[in-house]
Specification:
Elements: E1 2-11, E2 14-24, E3 29-33, H1 40-48, E4 55-64, E5 67-71, H2 78-82, E6 89-92, H3 96-99, H4 106-117, H5 122-135, H6 141-145, H7 154-166, E7 172-176, H8 184-201, E8 204-208, H9 212-218, E9 221-226, E10 229-235, H10 236-241, H11 246-254, E11 270-282, E12 294-306, E13 310-314, H12 321-329, E14 335-341, E15 347-349, H13 353-356, H14 363-377, H15 385-398, H16 415-427, E16 433-437, H17 445-462, E17 465-469, H18 473-479, E18 482-487, E19 490-496, H19 497-502, H20 507-515
Parallel strand pairs: 3-8, 3-9, 6-7, 7-8, 13-17, 13-18, 15-16, 16-17
Antiparallel strand pairs: 1-2, 1-4, 4-5, 9-10, 11-12, 11-14, 18-19
Helix pairs in contact: 4-5, 4-7, 5-7, 11-17, 14-15, 14-16, 16-17
């Protein structure tokens, strides 16, 4: 049904997609895998007619049911594409927070698709949206319908995007990293849902992912891309079991697994103690005069973290992981109980460095900012401009970047390089304790491996302690000395990593491990 025929795409005269040919039949799911910058997303955006205006098709064409949608040497026919976009072909984007309008309720946003492409009444549209929300695993569909994007967890926002994409049962579904922000149980629900939709509707699907395990479970065929070119493609079983190309073999070897066992660490010196911690958020009532009720999001949490230890925190989206970390960092003050740490103020490595790094500032400025802030809080820590610059150059070297990166901006760095800067920001004030909130979830497997190795290296050199939040159980197995399992705001199980993985006590923990 779909044919990407010898496609080449260039920006400013530089080809970023080179002679790519992919065919997708009715009912077939084709996975596209490869490192950041390999051309996966540009290929998908070109197929969808959403590529930037300055992109030029230098070769090839795109066909949908034998209709030529785009062709080299011809101006893009936007009117033709509009006949297909949203109805015949839809896309699930990677980052729902930037894809959803922050000023509109999500139910209204999903209804817009129905307004454009159907003649349903307002009541029928709302009912269809609620049914679709339920089908993608959104438990309280009516509450979600009336919510704004910022009131939903990352996983819930991603499910709203998936609902928007599938609501009209399109013939082609392009999914660009659709499960990146989701925990393992929700990932499985979404994968099962996409499989079900594919089997019932016989729609074609292009599934772009850096998670090779997901590609293996979902896709009929796999396309491996590197530097804008296809290096290998074939049946999923053949690609995974007998890859031909060295690059494909390297991708497979970089996938975190439970074979990569972390040596147990004996830690005795306590660096953080949390006791009977309860965390609250305001209800978000629309009325200025309404009595503000509170949501109880973390309930009676208690644990310790030792010097040089990595403590994993796992659980589904919305279980309270990030709320707990915000309370520990002092971002949310609406808490009861006690938080005591024997270190300078802890720092955080964020999940998405692209949205947490100021795009208008240079890397040098961004790395200096924690030092400037520390100097303002404590005059004894104030440094001269020359000393700050010297410390930044030293940190660039430690995180594996050249001094020339000092004058670059975040947009000029790859995803892995931006995450290295985020790690550098967290480390430059020499804290003893760091909260790492999904620090590798948005990265491809080879970059994941590099970042985990870098974090472990700093842990050894600086005796760092991490609270490591992740939905990837295999990453937790590789990184963590101990694991805490969280459900509905409560820590339900804690223990040594090997013990938790080999002999989980709680049914929920067993389910998490089974689904991973």
């Amino acid at each position: 049904m779909i044919k990407i025929d010898h496609l080449s795409v260039a920006f400013d005269g530089t080809e970023v997609v080179k002679n790519v040919t992919i065919e997708i039949a009715d009912g077939e799911i084709v996975g596209v895998v490869g490192e950041s910058g390999s051309g996966k997303s540009v290929t998908a955006l070109t197929l969808m007619g959403l590529i930037a205006e300055d992109a030029v098709l230098t070769n090839g064409r795109i066909l949908f049911d034998d209709v030529v949608l785009a062709e080299a040497g011809k101006a893009r026919d936007k009117a033709l594409y509009r006949n297909y976009q949203g109805d015949e072909m839809t896309m699930i984007f990677q980052e729902p927070m930037t894809s959803l309008n922050p000023t509109k309720r999500v139910g209204t946003q999903v209804e817009e698709v129905l307004k454009l492409h159907t003649k349903l009444s307002k009541e029928e549209m709302k009912e269809k949206v609620l049914d679709t929300f339920a089908s993608v695993g959104l438990k309280d569909a009516k509450k979600v319908y009336d919510s704004y994007p910022h009131q939903l967890s990352g996983g819930m926002r991603q499910r709203v995007m998936i609902a928007m994409a599938i609501i009209l049962k399109p013939k082609l579904l392009v999914a660009d990293e659709p499960t990146t922000a989701l925990d393992v149980t929700i990932q499985n629900q979404i994968i099962a849902l996409l499989k079900e939709i594919n089997e019932k509707q016989k729609n074609a699907m292009l599934f772009i992912t850096h998670d090779l395990n997901l590609a293996r479970r979902l896709c009929h065929r796999i396309v491996v891309m590197k530097d804008g070119c296809i290096v290998e493609q074939g049946e999923t079983k053949q690609i995974f079991e007998t890859p031909k190309e060295a690059y494909t073999k390297r991708l497979m070897e970089a996938v975190p697994s439970r074979i990569q066992k972390k040596e147990p660490r004996i830690c005795t010196e306590e660096i953080l103690r949390v006791e009977h911690l309860d965390v609250y958020y305001p209800s978000g009532s629309n009325s200025l005069f309404a009595r503000k009720e509170k949501h109880h999001v973390v309930k009676d949490a208690g644990f310790t973290l030792h010097k040089g230890e990595v403590l994993g925190l796992v659980g589904e989206s919305g279980c309270g992981k990030t709320s707990l970390s915000k309370a520990i960092l002092g971002i949310n003050h609406d808490v009861t109980g006690s938080i005591r740490y024997d270190t300078v103020r802890p720092q955080m490595i964020f999940q998405d460095p692209y949205s947490s790094l100021n795009p208008t500032k240079t890397i040098g400025w961004l790395l200096e900012e924690p030092l400037r802030a520390a100097g303002k809080l404590d005059k004894s820590l104030a440094l001269t401009k020359e000393d700050r610059r010297a410390m930044v150059y030293e940190m660039l070297k430690k995180i594996g970047l050249k001094e020339s990166y000092y004058d670059r901006k975040p947009s000029q760095l790859s995803g892995g390089q931006r995450q290295r800067v985020s790690i550098g920001q967290a480390l430059i004030t020499k804290p003893g304790f760091i909260v790492a909130d999904e620090p590798v979830s948005a990265l491809d497997v080879t970059i994941q491996a590099q970042i985990m190795e870098l974090m472990q290296q700093f842990q050894e050199e600086m005796q760092l302690s991490y609270l490591f939040i992740s939905h990837d159980i295999n990453v937790v197995y590789r990184m963590c000395d101990r694991v805490m399992v969280m459900k509905d705001g409560q820590i339900i199980e804690t223990g040594d990593t090997q013990e938790i993985f080999d002999h989980p006590k709680e049914e929920y923990t067993k389910l998490l491990l089974l689904n991973s």
